[in-house]
Amino acid sequence: MQLPRFAQGSDPGPSFVDLLKHSGLSPFNAPDSEVEVPHGTTCLAMRFDGGVLIAGDRRATAGNLIRSRHMDKVVQADLHSGVAFSGAAGPSMEMIKLFQLQLEHYEKMEGRSLSLEGKANQLSAMIRENMPAAMQGLAVLPLFAGFEPADGSGHIWDFDVTGGRYEEREYVTIGSGGMHAGTVLKVGWRSTLDRGTAVTLACRALWEAAEADSATGRPDFLRGLYPIMATITADGWAAVPDAELETVFRGIEEEVRTR
After folding, report:
1. What span, in angstroms and rounded, lies between the C-alpha atoms of 250 and 14?
2. Is the whole model's pTM more than 0.90, yes or no?
3. Rounded distance between C-alpha atoms, residue 102 and residue 83, angstroms
4. Buried b or exposed e, range 182-213, using 16+ CB within 10 angstroms
5. Are 43 and 74 within 8 A, CB to CB?
6. Who wins on pLDDT, 59 or 38?
7. Which of 41, 42, 200, 231 is catalytic?
């Protein structure tokens, strides 16, 4: 069998799926009348002194259109954990609802909560089960964060499309603006961050992501729409109020204006 040859610039690289698509052999080729599916974009999580912070912008896009300005991409999973997602919005929200139900069922049946690592493993298995849909473009790429009462510390995980899970020790970003948000976190993150400083750093990361990535939504002062942001500590999930976020973003706006 003769191997296919590709011109410079069209090499599919190490991806077997891309090789099939370039060779015209893929069963996953989308039809010409492909439907634009709403997608969630930039989310982040970071550890701080006492717990973890998880956040995401509110914009969902379908191709070049803004599909929604107020999507909730950051969701509480249970008392001590939360999930944020990027990727196809419909399958993502369905997966998170099922994940919440499974955690609640486990707690009722066993009389205790599943360990934080056990929750990450469960989410990993659900992503793996979504592989057939992911191969057709309906990928779900969440991040998971929580506080583990057993060791008194926060933990964060991100995942790949095959269900592989990776615990991050400092911070993680996902979505189309993840690279830009990650650069801000890389420069500003410290192990000694307190809650207030972590909130400010997360706001700055999402602001810079929105500056460089059209799929990431900026804070909307006109409509009173701000990113979903929450902290998870020994006391559990606590949403960061919009009034606090507005104050932080107004400060960032004024700083940018005076440059």
Report:
1. 45
2. no
3. 14
4. bebbeebbeeebebeebbbbbbbbbbbbbeeb
5. yes
6. 59
7. 41
Query: H or E stretch including 128?
Result: helix 116-129
**Domains along the chain?**
37-257 (3.60.20.10)
Instruction: Give the model's pLDDT for residue 238.
Output: 97
DSSP code of residue 171: E
List Cβ neighbours of 173 (8 Å cut-off, separation of 6 or more): 42, 43, 44, 179, 181, 182, 185, 205
Residues 37 and 218 sit within 8 Å (Cβ to Cβ): no
DSSP H or E run through 257: helix 242-257
Parallel, antiparallel, or unpaired for β 81-88 and 74-78?
antiparallel
The DSSP call for residue 27 is T
Can you give the pLDDT at residue 3?
63
3-state secondary structure of 199: helix
Specify whether 258 is catalytic.
no
In terms of Cα–Cα distance, which of 30, 90, 94, 96 is closest to 60? 90
Coil, helix or strand at residue 120 = helix
